[in-house]
Amino acid sequence: MSKIILTGDRPTGRLHVGHYVGSLRRRVELQNSGEYDKIFIMIADAQALTDNADQPEKVRQNIMEVALDYLSAGLDPEKSTIFIQSVVSELTELTFYYSNLVTVSRLQRNPTVKAEIQMRNFEASIPVGFFTYPISQAADITAFKATTVPVGEDQMPMLEQCREIVHKFNTVYGETLVMPDILLPDNKACLRLPGIDGKAKMSKSLGNCIYLSDTEQDVRKKVMSMFTDPGHLRVEDPGKTEGNPVFIYLEAFSRPEHFAQFWPDYAGLDELKAHYERGGLGDVKVKKFLNKVLQAELAPIRQRRKEWEKRIPDVYEILREGSREACAVAADTLKEVKAAMRINYFDDDAMIREQEEKYR
Ligand code: TRP
Questions:
Q1: Count of CB atoms within 10 A of residue 243's CB?
Q2: Which residues contact residue 197 at a Cβ distance below 8 angstroms, ignoring those fewer than 6 apart?
Q3: Which domains are delineated in the chain?
Q4: Ligand 1 pocket residue status of 8, Cβ below 6 Å
Q5: Which of 71, 274, 278, 282 could pair with 235 as two cysteines, CB 3.0-4.6 Å apart?
Q6: How far is the centre of ligand 1, averaged over its atoms, from the C-alpha of 47 (Å)?
Q7: By the 8 A CB rule, do 290 and 196 touch?
């Protein structure tokens, strides 16, 4: 069986380093591993509209931001198909049919949707489209026969729900859809990178993000203002590394070669942590190191972004071509789905003959 990746992001803002370690960096590695037959990367504008219905311009503007972030991070249009969700109208058709296989109470149990409803104060008036977006996400995944969905931990409930839909569909209508597997980051720090203020999640509205497109100066400022262990008041004090954002970021970003290059006093992160925990190591030193590590990772991304920013028409062409290809693939799947559901009335000669027999 071919190995196919589908994943994507809502275009509601620029992508930040949480997106990067949670999924984007992995996608680039998977893309370059050559192990996958097809890779589809979707800009989920239709999903973004489920909770931004009154802000179409925001979604529109962020399509380009996300596309630039993708290309800058190293997604290569020669190897990965980057496309825009709303262009592939087959996805909404699939969503409509899959809706019959999902109950309201099942949707209400989805913990990510539950949390998002709370966060957006939707409790009293949940838009139906938002409530049902896990179904549309199942359409996104199955339309491309994805076997592998590399996403962050918050997407786990979506994958579970998708797998249930696949199972139900195949049980009711016969083996048609491919069962996808989730692929989570293997490093725990990457599962959910906290904001620079130590809050559990990076989010634009909290103003606690480091963006892939931030300037060198912005990144430095943000790193130097990061929360650390509040109990670590004097340099001599023993410090906590667990739950300490600076160390979580180092877990997510630092590699042994960064120590060799920037801080050869330590062989690696474990030694650095031990020193911090013993006491005698100040936060500023650790932050300066983190800044160097981050800059080393982000500099090539920033550089590529500058290049792509000079080629906006080419980026639109990449999206147009990717969307065209995505439409063709989704159309094939929709055809199979309709055949399985017995709603393919004109391309089934056997059925026409059968009806002919019946009325003879
Ligand atoms: N829900 C994802 C996000 O918020 C975006 C998304 C839409 C997606 N459809 C998908 C991710 C299908 C993986 C697979 O970022």
A1: 10
A2: 206, 208, 226, 227, 245
A3: 4-192+312-355 (3.40.50.620), 216-308 (1.10.240.10)
A4: yes
A5: 282
A6: 8
A7: no
Instruction: Look at 13-22, 39-48, 116-125 and tell me which has the smallest mean pLDDT.
Output: 116-125
Give the full edge-to-edge strand order of the sheet including 38-43. Answer: 81-84, 38-43, 4-9, 148-150, 181-183
- Ligand 1 centre to CA of 104 (Å) is 21
Ligand 1 within 6 A of CB of 9: yes
- Residue among 134, 91, 96 nearest 114 (CA): 134
- For the stretch 312-358, pLDDT in tens is 999 999 999 999 999 999 999 999 999 999 999 888 888 889 889 99
pLDDT in tens, 96-117: 999 999 999 999 999 988 888 8
Q: Extract the runs of DSSP E, i.e. beta strands, from the chain.
A: 4-9, 38-43, 81-84, 148-150, 181-183
Please, what is the average pLDDT of the chain? Answer: 94
**Structure tokens given for 81:** 């198909």
| Residue recorded with tokens 């983190």 | 290
Give dist(CA 159, CA 139) in Å, integer: 11
Amino acid, res. 273 = K
